[in-house]
Write a structure and sequence with these properties.
Elements lengths: L1 H16 L7 H32 L8 H12 L11 H32 L11 H20 L8 H44 L5
Helix pairs in contact: 1-2, 1-6, 3-4, 5-6
């Protein structure tokens, strides 16, 4: 069974990689199997983690869980065309609550923490920070200020103001480049892992 699983994994891996040549039935079959197994896995995981563990086992301790079940049943009414419009109510409730939750989380992580990192003392309250940390703090302050200046379009970018805006462009380009490079490297690590699987576990060329 171990050898059979390795051959199945190699077959599906080669099917996904075959898309580099062109769209073909082998790739479509591998993609359909991946999507189907993923959907089935998440269905089972959500059933046991949410419906069984949280609702069925905790419904007596937390009666408000019945509200979630009621909204979930209303969402299933979308399968019935005549009364499918009722599913919009729980969907609107979920979208609103999720938006409010993510608004608070992103406000704390993407705004407040960045503001805190920008206005922190260069050498700390006891002047014990290293020179490396002080230089990093200065770079953060300059990059944040120049980036905000670049997006200030009420004043023409000329003179010292224009030079600051141009510096902001450089900081933005470096930031986007680093983010893109991180994304590429993460995808490359996945590719290297698959190649290592094919050469080591499947073909046995690397020991």
């Amino acid at each position: 069974m171990d050898h059979f699983a390795v051959w199945i994994a190699a077959f599906l891996t080669m099917g996904i990689v075959s898309f580099l040549y062109k769209d073909n039935p082998w790739y479509k079959l591998s993609e359909a199997i991946f999507v189907g197994i993923s959907a089935g896995y998440w269905f089972i995981a959500l059933f046991w983690d949410s419906i069984y563990s949280k609702f069925w086992l905790g419904k007596e301790a937390d009666p408000f869980l019945w509200v979630g079940v009621f909204l979930g049943v209303l969402m299933l009414l979308r399968l019935i065309p005549k009364i499918g419009w009722i599913s919009r109510w729980p969907l609107a409730f979920i979208v609103g609550c999720t938006s409010g939750l993510y608004l608070i989380n992103f406000l704390a992580s993407n705004l407040m923490r960045q503001v805190q990192a920008t206005i922190q003392p260069l050498f700390g309250p006891d002047f014990g920070a290293s020179l490396y940390a002080a230089v990093g703090s200065i770079v953060i302050v300059v990059g944040t200020f120049s980036g905000l200046v670049y997006f200030f379009f009420s004043k023409e970018h000329k003179g010292a103001f224009g030079a600051t805006a141009k510096l902001g462009i450089w900081f933005i380009m470096i930031t986007f480049g680093a983010s893109f490079g991180y994304t590429v490297m993460s995808r490359m690590s996945l590719l290297i892992g698959r190649i290592d699987f094919l050469l080591t576990d499947w073909l046995g060329l690397i020991r």
